[in-house]
Amino acid sequence: MLKLWRMKTVGLTALVLLMLAAAGCSPAQTADSDQPGTNQGSAGNGGDDPAPNPDEPSTGEPQPDPKPNDTDTNTPPQSGDNEQPELAPGGEPAGEEPADNGKDPDSAPDEAPAPVAENEAFRIFEPAEGTTIDSNFVVKGQARVFEAAFSYTFEDGHEMLDEGHVMASVGAPEWGDFEFTVDVSGASSNTGTLTIYEISAKDGSKVHQLTTTVTLDAKLLQPAP
Prior knowledge:
This protein is of the alpha+beta class. Helix content is about 15%, strand content about 25%. The strands form two sheets. The chain has a five-stranded mixed β-sheet, with no helix packed on it. The relative contact order is 0.11. It comes from Paenibacillus phyllosphaerae.
């Protein structure tokens, strides 16, 4: 029996070899084809090319340029609120009109009014000679006196109605502005005389005296004693 079984086995093996020979395959190739997981498409065995890796770029075609980075540090800065405005000649911002100060730039500078009385030390602008006075009045003018100090008197021909000392805005040799109020109460005559003068530093005398006369309204007059 054992001998008979061996003869059958040899006969089957010979039959398989004949079939393989007829098909053009060697036993080794048949064995490789029967192994699971064998890559039948390898280049060494004459099969198809391996499947391309999607993560690897193709070497046969030019690659497109990468997309620009939105955070590229070479991007020029955008203009912001901290930019300095462009200045036009003269220091004014370009496109802006200079501030209107209410004056015509082509107009002549303000000039002092013409004096109604004057000498080398004083100029009186008001009141004008012969002005009718019905209450206390304001005297305006300019003085060019030592240390800007001078004095005044006002009398009606009978009584000294008012007197005092005044300081101009600046002393000699500049002309300083002055303004003061004269009290006319107690007048008994319709003619009032204003005198302004400087006190001499040498002997205390009155120098550079300048006078102007005004008319006192009748309602101011009081009966003479």
